[in-house]
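Pasting two entries for a bug report.
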Amino acid sequence: MGGKALPIQELYCSQADYSQVCRVTVEAIDAPTTPLIHQMSRFWLFTGGHGTITLQDRQYEVGPGTMVSVLPWQISDVVQVTEPLQYYLLTYYFDNVNMAVKALGQAGHTPLHLMEDMAAAPVVQCSSQEAQALRLLFEQLRQETVRPDGDALQELYTANKLAEVVITFLRLGRRRGQPAQKATEKSDILHYMYTHLSEKLTLSQLSRQFFLSESAISAYITQTTGLSFFDLLGEMRIGRSISFLLYTDLTMEQLAEILGFVDSSHISKVFSARLGMKASEFREVYRRVGGLCGIRDDPTAYEVVSYLYHNYARELLPQRTAERFGLSVRELNTLLLYQVEKDFSDFLNFLRINRACTLLKTTSRSVTDIAFEVGYNTVKTFNRNFLKFRGMSPSAFRQEIALQENTL
């Protein structure tokens, strides 16, 4: 990918009704395509033909019975068509379906990591019987979403069918999904930004994550999307805003905090510039709170996440943190698994290691000093968690950063 910016898919299923949670079409491809950046999630279920696709610059063979998951701000391309490809295309709002599936999981006390699991094995090959069952699901969704007499029962039916598609895909992926390569690609930058919008993203943070200079990150974003780093953040935040406005009762102030806007007036200004109406007006026109299995977002989850973001260096214990918010430890972990796909321990260590990476890169302080500053009581615990999240020791990380900077 180079030169001309890639086209970006629209951020809604239906231009006539932004609240339509999904859309199913039957399509065909007989020649290679142009790479596309997806704002909306999608599933491909191939019913005929053979070819090769790339997803996040990783190559996969596809044919009858192949199912592919594409997540928000990932990049796909059909690079080879040996026989014309026929397929069902299911486009949907990820956040809405994520809420519905996780609500079901929480009812059974089952921790779910949808984004992580779907990204880890994005392509599965179904048996003929599995493919037939999936075709039936796709066809039921297609027929349901074109019905003109939409009501609460239609919304509930659609939500449950979408959840069934996702759960079926996850089950197949665990059995025999084609895993994504672990090596980080430049094309992962956009998806990473989308999944970390609440972290007040900066080019410096992306530089640490992808081991590239800030100028290289900025240039890649502009060359790929045609947008500056800050304009792209705005575009992503608007996409996530739609889901929250339609399906939650969170206030504009809470949404601004969650999505990384300066304040409620900022979110309204950006929203108006992109969609031609204020965010509050959009909610009044299109909202369908409760349409997805009666789900309403609880601001407590965001309050917990915010508290951990701002206090990770303190001696935090799950029991005390849970009591602070009137929760049990089990409820605390459930909220965090739902919101950030990590339990209390993993999320706290994740935040600490991210801060440690900054200090290792920007200071000459010892590993021991950094370990204590970010909240660890022993260097051994720090090293163990650094290895878990970064795949190397703190010293190796510092050396690698130094080598990269010397080659720039």
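Entry 2 (this is the one that rendered wrong in the viewer):
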Amino acid sequence: MNTYKSAGVDKEEGYKTVDKIKTAVAETHNKNVLNNLGSFGAFYEIGGYKNPVLVSGTDGVGTKLKIALDTKKYDSIGIDCFAMCANDILCHGAKPLFFLDYLACGKLDSDVAAEIVLGMVKACKDNNCALIGGETAEMPGMYNAGDYDVAGFCVGIVEKDEIIDGSKIRKGDRIIALPSSGFHSNGFSLVRKIFTDFNEIFEGKPLYETLLVPTRLYFQPIHKLLKSIDIHGIAHITGGGLIENVPRIIPIGLCAEIDTSKIKIPSIMLELEKRGNISRSEMFGTFNMGVGMVVVVRENDAAKVLELLEDAYEIGEITENEEKIVLK
């Protein structure tokens, strides 16, 4: 007799996954979450805002996931998934409210799935965000056994008159870099082409440990600034690097003039550049090069930003130019 399990889908393994994560997921909930896992939809009540605007973002972790699967190190991937979504909406000054995840695989292993989701839980807690739902899809025939794909969706909120969209940026404003924690979750198709042995020792530890350092979460430092600084623009440096992401917030007629000699490039990226014989322009157009996020502030506020965030540093200023970005 044919059954769903004989076709490759084990519902019991899905139930086990829920059992392994439900207590931890519940710890991310607050008074605004009105129901628990298991409903057809998740309820989140909004209150305390005068003119609220919802800001949403969705993303995945790309082929960085392949390194995690090959090395069986799953604990950081959930953090990456959340960070890629939450850091995007943060660029508009939004506070993350809730997050949902989507996990697809060829054959579900509840231990692996739980480890990935528990990474999301950890990231949600760091951002005071509720993990209110998700979907686990076992899809034999679409994915091979052992393969997983991970994506997420984050919704945040900001007062309408406090939205950050780059419109306040003016000539003379300063560009401040917030360091990345590594490659984050972009450019890994090229990374995997050059680095083929993830177990080789790099700077005293297996290479995969450096490659799988999770994407940095910027909620805490950005909201620390928002309490006392009028931020004119924020850019999350993801795929396409500074070259593609900074222009997204620059008004017409202005230019982000960046001094690349001031940028602190991680040693792993320099190693990739050297081994792969990759041009510096290709590196800057593909990777974050050590800058995970930039903030644009008035010249008079730059020193205050550097005082509040010890690891931040200035990399350029806003000038007048037809080009929205110039790397010197």
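Dev reply: Rendering is fixed now. As a check, the viewer should reflect this: The first helix runs from residue 11 to 26.
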